[in-house]
Amino acid sequence: METLQIPTREREEMIDITTEVQKLIRQNGWGDGGVLLYCPHTTGAITINEGADPDVKRDIVVNMRRLVPHQGDYRHAEGNSDAHLKVSMFGPSQMIIVESGDLKLGTWQRVFFCEFDGPRTRKLWVKWLSA
Amino acid sequence: METLQIPTREREEMIDITTEVQKLIRQNGWGDGGVLLYCPHTTGAITINEGADPDVKRDIVVNMRRLVPHQGDYRHAEGNSDAHLKVSMFGPSQMIIVESGDLKLGTWQRVFFCEFDGPRTRKLWVKWLSA
Amino acid sequence: METLQIPTREREEMIDITTEVQKLIRQNGWGDGGVLLYCPHTTGAITINEGADPDVKRDIVVNMRRLVPHQGDYRHAEGNSDAHLKVSMFGPSQMIIVESGDLKLGTWQRVFFCEFDGPRTRKLWVKWLSA
To answer: B105, B18 in Cβ contact below 8 A?
Structure first.
């Protein structure tokens, strides 16, 4: 298992980690199989979405905040229940196909680390599973 | 990795792909492991849900539209930010157990390709991971 | 593939299954790879979230009920379309890293079986995928 460090700058943020993950695959010589990108934090998630237009990230973050507001009917004393709920909706991990050392993504797909209660420095675990 | 072609007919649609995926597993002689169904499009997702009553698909599509409407506080110029958000909520892929060449699903479960900005002809990537 | 039995007591409930899953991994002698936790029921899901404060579970269940109410614009005659929709949002499975027989979770992470239309006795399928 490998670990990447992800610094975040805002409370809610989507950070494109595609290049770092691709680099890690090459460094490890992984060839044909799948890679599990796993977030070990309970206010962080992994998603795959359009990466060409930064407005897509903005629209996702703003509309998730509308659906699951920071303040509301919450009892958890840390004040970040909205972040926990968003994590269950997006999921803590994504599995991606790797072929000949290449991360197989669609033309417009990029991989994002989502922080919903930052800013913080976060870890991403990367696990290779062979075909 | 194998590829299936999925034609869609409406803007938002859930298409039962269980039979095609099962056929592909048999054709490839895959035995015991897991199969990753992966959508390489940023307005498409994969989900697993009840397939016996078509009203379940209808209820899911209609209520996701209520939660994430087509028009709203969006800046992305293509006018399909609702579709991108739904994809992050459902996820671009599903991993399913395979035993003795059989896709292991619960009694009422079927596998659906979800298009949220169709109609289009889409690809589904299918990757075998051995146990 | 192994099977765990999960009894539930309420209509909507998150049950911490971390200890049972860890025990199963040890019993099977699984070492280094990934474990797929898969719910074969169409009103059940698997999620990973904060497990230290029970208010987090409560906040997630209550706020998912607000977003996807039990009564609404539903045609499915069984009256549990809300549960089906929540399953598509949380997902029917989670893949978790295993190293040296240990389930690799973050400090605050626990694994939960989510029932959205209980109480019922449910099954959880556990599939080992080697690295």
So the answer is: yes
- Of the candidates B7, B54, B29, B37, which has an alpha carbon nearest to the alpha carbon of residue B105? B37
CATH code assigned at A107? 2.60.120.460
Residue of A nearest to B76 (CA): A55
pLDDT at B81: 98
CB proximity under 8 Å: C 23-82 to A = 33-34, 47-50, 53, 55-56, 58-60, 62-64, 66-67
**Chain B: residue whose CA lies nearest to A100:** B1
Strand, coil or helix: what is C19? Answer: helix
Q: Is A34 in Cβ contact with B36 (below 8 Å)?
A: yes
Q: Hunting for tokens 């993950």 — which residue is that?
A: A21
For A64, name the nearest residue in chain C, comparing CA atoms only: C67
CA distance B67 to A68: 11
Structure tokens at B71: 């028009």
Three-class SS of chain B: CEEEEEECCCCCEEEECHHHHHHHHHHHCCCCEEEEEECCCCCEEEEEEECCCHHHHHHHHHHHHHHCCCCCCCCCCCCCHHHHHHHHHHCCEEEEEEECCEECCCCCEEEEEEECCCCCEEEEEEEEEEC
Residue located via tokens 């209820």: B59
Asked whether the whole model's pTM tops 0.90, one would answer yes
Tell which of C35, C59, C90, C107 to mutate to test the A interface (max A CBs under 10 Å). C59
Q: What is the pLDDT of residues A71-98, one digit of tens each?
A: 999 999 999 999 999 999 999 999 999 9
> Cα distance from C98 to chain A (closest Cα, Å)?
9
Structure tokens at A97: 């196909």
Cα–Cα distance between C79 and A54 in angstroms, integer?
Answer: 40
ipTM field: 0.97
Residue range(s) defining the domain that contains residue C24: 2-130
Q: How many distinct structural domains can be found in chain B? A: 1
Q: C111 near C37, Cβ under 8 Å? A: yes
The SS3 assignment for C83 reads helix
Question: Could you tell me where the DSSP H helices lie in A29-124?
Answer: 54-67, 81-90
Measured in angstroms, the CA of A131 and the nearest CA of chain C are apart by 9
